[in-house]
Design goal:
Layout: H1 3-8, H2 11-36, H3 44-62, H4 65-89, H5 94-117, E1 133-134, H6 145-149, E2 152-153, H7 154-172, H8 174-184, H9 186-191, H10 196-222, H11 234-244, H12 249-268, H13 276-328
Antiparallel strand pairs: 1-2
Length: 329
């Protein structure tokens, strides 16, 4: 069997898919909850960078994994709140504000990295902590399934548990109902007493929370250090995952697994005699292709619905005309 094919069919490859999927699934949920509220957050790239940086710095200087977790979450939620303030209070366009936040996060973390370490590249000179790996007692002994699903970083399991949590939050809580109501029709929501700006503010802060968890995993789970712009576009791939998943929890999980699979393929073929630039391009190329296919399907569905609606309208009008004619006779 071809060595590459043998590697892809191994349990290690399945393990890698879940590992690579984690920093895509978490921010994808952040994108989804903001989009459901009608204010899509495309600043997850910057939010992840901020959380990843502060998590590593706080863990290195305090030696506490809990303080590092709180610092990363605080950085992400604060970033989301800042975006919400500029958009909702100062009436800035949310897309432009998010782009500015992404650019600020990149420059700010490099500047602070130099202040703390004297290096503009990474925190390799600091001894930072990592989140623990979890061995699931019974599952780890099961052939095939054990090596794939057991032994992951705890943040991977948090990402998987976040899927049902997202469903419960959005579809089974008063806040989730308000988020969906505001996103679907803000004027109708306001007419029944819902504070639209407040709900959007909460949604963007929750978006920052999900993005922060993804960033913390990158610097304290995926690797054990922070490097400049280490998100490498994952925040934008998360937008694609949320779009492909229809902003629904299971849809985002499958979309994230798809991107995890593609990224894992790129990692595994890096050993082949292929230009590294081409390998690095693969995940983004697949993202563009997947979004193009999704867009075509959406457009076809819209045309079908509009056609059915027009046909239905014509039938109704025709029926009304016949009724009027029969009444006249």
């Amino acid at each position: 069997m071809n060595p590459l094919l043998k590697s892809i069919l191994s349990t290690g490859f399945g393990f890698a898919i879940l590992r690579v999927m984690t920093p895509i699934l978490l921010p994808a949920m952040g994108v989804a909850i903001s989009e459901l509220a009608g204010s899509v957050n495309i600043a997850l790239e910057g939010i992840m960078i901020m959380a990843a940086f502060f998590g590593v710095i706080v863990s290195a200087f305090t030696g506490s994994i809990w303080l590092a977790l709180l610092a990363g979450i605080a950085a992400g939620v604060t970033s989301g709140a800042i975006l919400a303030y500029f958009h909702l209070k100062l009436k800035a366009d949310i897309i432009l504000a998010a782009i500015a936040l992404n650019m600020f996060a990149s420059g700010f973390t490099i500047f602070m990295l130099y202040i703390f370490t004297g290096d503009k590249g990474s925190t390799s000179s600091l001894k930072s902590l990592v989140f623990p790996e979890i061995q699931i007692p019974i599952l780890k002994s099961i052939p095939v399934l054990g090596p794939i699903f057991s032994g992951h970083n705890i943040m991977t399991y948090i990402a998987l548990l976040a899927v049902p949590f997202f469903y419960f939050l959005v579809f089974r809580t008063p806040l989730g109902l308000r988020i969906r109501a505001v996103g679907q029709n803000p004027h109708a929501a306001e007419s029944v007493g819902i504070n639209v700006n407040r709900v959007k503010f909460y949604a963007l802060m929750l978006s920052g929370l999900f993005g922060a968890l993804g960033g913390l995993y990158l610097s304290m789970g995926y690797v054990s250090w922070f490097s400049r712009d280490m998100t490498a576009g994952r925040g934008f791939i998360a937008i694609a995952a949320a779009t492909l998943g229809g902003n629904m929890p299971m849809g985002m999980l499958w979309a994230s697994l798809l991107f995890g699979f593609v990224n894992s393929i790129a990692i595994y073929i890096a050993s082949l005699d292929i230009p590294s630039e081409l390998i690095q391009m693969i995940p983004y190329l697949i993202t563009v292709i997947a979004l193009a296919i999704f867009s075509i399907k959406v457009q076809m569905k819209k045309k079908h619905v509009e056609g059915a609606r027009e046909l239905y309208s014509e039938e109704v009008i025709s029926g009304v005309v016949k009724d009027i004619s029969s009444d006249g006779d």
